[in-house]
Amino acid sequence: MTNPQSATPAPPFCFTKAQRLLSPNDFKRVFDNPIKKIHSEHLLLFVQTGMPEQTHARLGLAITKKKVKLAVMRNRLKQLTREYFRHTAPTLGAVDVVLIVKKNYTKETDLHDELIHIFEKLAMLFPSDLSKINQSC
């Protein structure tokens, strides 16, 4: 008898550990020498080309208590950002992206439009070679 979970294919859009910036050195490399900065009213994306062996986009989040006071709001912003990145990542080349909050973020601030705009701009500026897209997790 087979395990029904093993028979199901992996979802086409996933956010794996390999798609995250994890080490301080990775963040430092992106912050120190970005090839592009993408601005919106409250958000700023730093973009740097990926490492030579890298085949996919990676995301790092630097959302501080100073800019987003409540943990609930910080976590919601992280969740939304990861979700938009998940859907944009298959169309991106091998880039490292770090998102920071520029201005204080309040509950009234609607960041959905800003996230959509900033990730659409990122996808236009750094498209992937569609023949190399691997959507398996």
Automatic annotation (TrEMBL):
Catalytic activity line of the entry: Endonucleolytic cleavage of RNA, removing 5'-extranucleotides from tRNA precursor
Domain of life: Bacteria
Keyword list, A-Z: Endonuclease, Hydrolase, Nuclease, RNA-binding, tRNA processing
Keyword Lyase among record annotations: no
Keyword Hydrolase tagged: yes
Any Gene Ontology biological process: tRNA 5'-leader removal
Signal peptide residues on this chain, from the entry's feature table: none
EC assignment: 3.1.26.5
Entry's Gene Ontology molecular function annotations: 3'-tRNA processing endoribonuclease activity; ribonuclease P activity; tRNA binding
Entry GO CC: ribonuclease P complex
Gene3D superfamilies registered for this protein in UniProt: 3.30.230.10
Assembly mode: Consists of a catalytic RNA component (M1 or rnpB) and a protein subunit.
Family stated for the protein in its record: Belongs to the RnpA family.
Protein role: RNaseP catalyzes the removal of the 5'-leader sequence from pre-tRNA to produce the mature 5'-terminus. It can also cleave other RNA substrates such as 4.5S RNA. The protein component plays an auxiliary but essential role in vivo by binding to the 5'-leader sequence and broadening the substrate specificity of the ribozyme.
Protein name: Ribonuclease P protein component
Annotated organism of origin: Moraxella lacunata
Gene expressing this chain: rnpA
